[in-house]
Amino acid sequence: MTQVLSIDRASVDATGTQANNASYVPFFSADGTKLLFWSDATNLVVDDTNTRSDIFLKDLTTGDVTRISTSASGAQSNGNSYGPKMSADATVIVFHGNSTNLVSGDTNAVNDVFVKDLTTGIVTRVSQTVAGDIGNGASEEAFISADGTKVVFKSSATNLVTNDLNGARDIFLKDLTTGDITRVSTDAGGNEADAGSDEAVISADGTKVAFWSLASNLGTGDTNNTYDVFVKDLTTGAVTLVSSDAAGTVGNFGSYSPVFSPDGTKVAFRSIATDLVTGDTNGVSDIFVKDLTTGDITRVSTNTAGAQANGGSFAAAFSADGTRIAFSSTASNLVSGDTNGKSDVFVKDLITGTTSRVSETPEGVEAAGDSYAPAFGATNDDLAFYSFAPNLLIGDTNGKSDIFVINTIDGETVTGGGGDETL
């Protein structure tokens, strides 16, 4: 059973002063020493006067906070910034936003995808053609490869590649080294999708991209006329429909939000399908794990005894070694004593089957507000999430969602990491 050993708040300034507005969706560096998030707060760094949502990077060792969503010269953005992700070494950060002053010539008046190189300070617009022409539609929800050389994102732009004629949102891959841009949401023969695609992620080794799509022509057997999860092999071009049962039959309802295991052999996703595994009768969104090698599929949003959740589950995240999955859920029956009526963060041990709630105090007091978007640090014991709960830490009086970092204990073994650093 995983228990919370310590909890700290990351959405504070370098001196520990709490944020004066909401913070959302944490993302760890590979070594667990840095945490990325976006926030509406204006007091996390000095001279934050743009009254916009900004991207911040927290050093969990020193407590320092850096605002990322600035131009190469350090000018603050004139628009909102969201959805940050970073390379494994935390030197390259990608995000999307509607600022017009982060790079020159930004005149399309929609969200674009940007990359900030923390070594040089240079900001690059990713959502543009090889020739440098700006996208003629919104680009969002970017994800960067571990080595910081590739970015995938969704876009409604029709001019990023030639022959984009489907009139639908597509998934694109930008090679930051060569500048090449490729449309990923195509079938194995390169034919464009017949409907929109969303929420792309790239495997750690940069060889595969997962996304969900309403398209019916990307893979064989897609007859359900709803959203499915696909994996595109960037080396071979092969497309695999992931949201299917162990026999390969596509799910009967929508599937969304894929994430890769660290070794790229598994994909976790949420689905409202009722036929991916036997005994799925709860009628809510569940978290599933698909083994890309064997085709086996497992529902992980269950309690320790294997009973299905009585509420919806969302936002899966793998631990660094792939043996645990964290997710948020409104279910009240995944652990005993869950009486807060809130969305909580849970951890499923894929080896033992144990389910634990981690959005609570070290004393076991449950959160008095909703908690979402878990992320693992460098070890199984370090996690972050954002929560509206005011009772997870003494002194949390801002009445807004904050980023919390926890360190946990499993059995009698305690390991340190980013979560028990002084913030």
Cα distance spanning the termini: 26 Å
Percent of residues in helices comes to: under 10%
Quantity of strands, as a count: 28
Multimeric organization: single chain
Ranges where pLDDT stays below 50 over 5 or more residues in a row are 412-423
Largest sheet: 4 strands, antiparallel
Structural class call reads mainly beta
Strand content of the residues, in percent?
35-45%
On the 0 to 100 scale, the average pLDDT is 95
Strand order of the largest sheet: 1-28-27-26
Total number of helices: 0
Shape: globular
String of helices and strands = EEEEEEEEEEEEEEEEEEEEEEEEEEEE
Radius of gyration over alpha carbons?
Answer: 21 Å
What would your notes on this structure say?
Helices cover 0% and strands 37% of the residues. By secondary structure, it is mainly beta. The protein has a four-stranded antiparallel sheet with strand order 1-28-27-26, with no helix packed on it. A four-stranded antiparallel sheet has the order 2-3-4-5, with no helix packed on it. It has a four-stranded antiparallel sheet with strand order 6-7-8-9, with no helix packed on it. Strand 18 and strand 19 form a beta hairpin. The two termini are 26 Å apart. The C terminus is likely disordered.
